[in-house]
Amino acid sequence: MSILQSPIIKISLRHLFAKKRQTIVAMLGVMFGIAVFIFQAGLMSGFQMTFIEQTVNTTANIRLYNEANKNRPSILSQIDSLKGRLLFVRNQKPKDEQPKIRNGKQIIDILEKDKNVSGVSPFLGSQAIFKMGIAQMSGRVSGVDIVKENILFNVQKNNTHGNILKLQTIPNGIILGEGLADMLGAKMGDNINVISPAGVTLEMKVVGINRSGITEVDKTRAYINLRNAQKLLRVDGSYITDINIKLKDINVAGDLAEDYNEKFGYKALDWREANANIFGIFKIQNMITYLVIISILIVSGFGIFNILMMIIYEKMPDIAILKAVGYKDRDIVKIFLTESLLIGIVGGLLGLLLGFTMQQVVGSIKMDVKGFVSMEYLRFNSSPLFFIFAYVFALIVTAIAGYIPARKASKIDAIDIIRSK
Amino acid sequence: MTTVKNIIETKNLNKFFHDPVEFQALKGVNVSVKQGEFAAIVGASGSGKSTLLYVLSTLDTDYTGNIYFDGDNLSLQSKDQLAAIRNEKIGFVFQFHYLLPEFTVLENVAMPAIKLGRYSQEQIDDLAMEKLKMLGLEDQAYKRANKLSGGQQQRVAIARALINDPKIIMGDEPTGNLDSKNSEIVFDILKELKEKYNQSILIVTHDMNFANKTDRIITLRDGEVQNQ
Ligand SMILES: Nc1ncnc2c1ncn2[C@@H]1O[C@H](COP(=O)(O)OP(=O)(O)O)[C@@H](O)[C@H]1O
Ligand SMILES: [Mg+2]
Fold it and tell me: Which phi and psi angles does A387 have, rounded to 5°?
């Protein structure tokens, strides 16, 4: 006996066809639940992937720096005679600038020989005010050895204008972030003034414009030569505050960071720890996405429950006859469970299709998004996992929504119905 | 001399309803129907005819005493076993025809046979058609069941009751809703089944005209058997 001839399926189908409108509404419920989830999960996850890629690409695998002035103990507490007393120091401020890494040169030499390391880049950063004519913006300069920096962060690839090597060949060259250049109205070849908190002003020439993709960074950052950064801060030629490290395998970053921390005596921050807050936000985003599908599908579940209760109420005589001619309780359960599963299977498949189509359509529209990150097209993660999760979850919900009324139907007392007419 | 065996037989059957008040609907009922016998249960309204028939048909299991059906003691069977017995050995006709409205006449007749699963779909269709012919309904086979007249529907119900060649046909006032002409037709069909195929039949009726034409009348009064 083929499946389609089985009386269970036949009866289920006839019931659903007799209630076309309600059946379609119930299917639409499942369909939209799944489609919305696939769209939202794909968008969220695609966004996160983009963000992680861009962030990880702009975050050093390991960043070595001196955190000596963070939470430094107050000077009062170092006075012996005050030990054991309750001390209270108001408005204790950390120093503005980060302290230097001593013997940075040697550390870099050692790291460059480390077999785990594929690139090392020294860094000296400072707040700065950029002025061109009357336009004035505050931001940060990154003093780097541009060739080394490029190995770590692909600076050249993100350059929309100019060659990064100009930073080495032109003594007062500067590469502006795209947003910063826009706001200053600066073009290639323009001269701008860079003023440091130490009161030094350098006239610099725009030799490149860079787009990392992270809007906030592109609005504030400018690359300059390490030597110029040292001039701005009035410090000596060995002064650096950070050493950024690129690894051959980013997954060992956490372990290596601990090693380096011990070995060099400086804080070593790996990329995962540095972006911990972002990963935390992503977790919450994902939870919200899953809550959305769960709520929508639970609502669809109620829809299915309702339509089945309606069918069962109307079909009590049918149930009584089937029982009278020898159909078992189990068969009755199967009939109504099949009905809800048919709604789930068909509605679910349509939902997968709609979700996928929505991803494709929206993903092909040129958007030029400039938000947290900037991208031309919305990127969707079309991982089969989302599709499978959504479908399996929908089937579970419909099965539960169907089983409860189905069981109820199977417990109907045939005699009550046969008598009561 | 051969003794004809009992198809169904009850021993001291009692049935109580508890709602709304404690009420004994069957009181120590001992009845039997022999193989090939056409028997009628009669009695005033409320005397317990339907109650007795539902107990005999295995649909109602809430009784005391014993029912022997085709050699089995029904009180020892599980719910599923009883469903299988109903499917295979009992043909049912109700006062209201109770067909599945979304299905064709042929599909309705075939429904118990599909559950039985003894024959292929084609064989079942042939069998159902054969029964419909017997009842003069072959030209209605592909109509939807609810498009037929009441008398026709009742004949379809009889065809459905016959599809698995049951040991007994039971009916609860199968002519109760029909005019006299259709009642006559239904009676004649049952009579013919008994005569041609030695079919055992047990029919509840309050139509004495109908009952008088059967082999034997069982009279119930207030849940007790008056005569057999
Ligand atoms: N479900 C029930 N609950 C309580 N009393 C019932 C129920 N079904 C039937 N009865 C009572 O049992 C008696 C017999 O009913 P029934 O078998 O239907 O009589 P008949 O078919 O002979 O007219 C009646 O008094 C009726 O009121
Ligand atoms: Mg009755």
Answer: -65, -45
The one-letter amino acid code at A70 reads K
- Measured from the Cα of B47, ligand 1's closest atom is 22
Domain ranges in chain B?
6-227
Question: For residue range B19-63, what is the model confidence (pLDDT) as tens digits?
Answer: 889 999 999 999 999 999 999 999 999 999 999 999 999 999 999
**CA diameter of chain B:** 51
> Looking at domain B6-227, does it have CATH number 3.40.50.300?
yes
The span from the CA of A404 to the CA of B171, in Å, is 33
Is the confidence metric ipTM above 0.95 for this complex? no
Distance, in Å, from the CA atom of A235 to the CA atom of A199, rounded to the nearest integer, reads 13
Q: In what order do the strands lie in the sheet with B38-43?
A: B90-93, B168-172, B200-204, B38-43, B216-221, B224-227
Percent of chain B with pLDDT over 70: 98
Distance CA A66, CA A77 (A): 22
Amino acid letter, residue A68: A
Across the range B183-204, mean pLDDT stands at: 93
**B63 in Cβ contact with B10 (< 8 Å):** no
For chains A and B, count residue pairs whose Cβ atoms are closer than 8 Å.
76
Residues of B with CB below 8 A from A323's CB?
Answer: 59, 83
What's the mean per-residue pLDDT of chain B? 92
Dihedral sign of CA atoms A281, A286, A292, A294 in order: negative
Cross-chain residue pair B102–A419, CB shorter than 8 Å: no
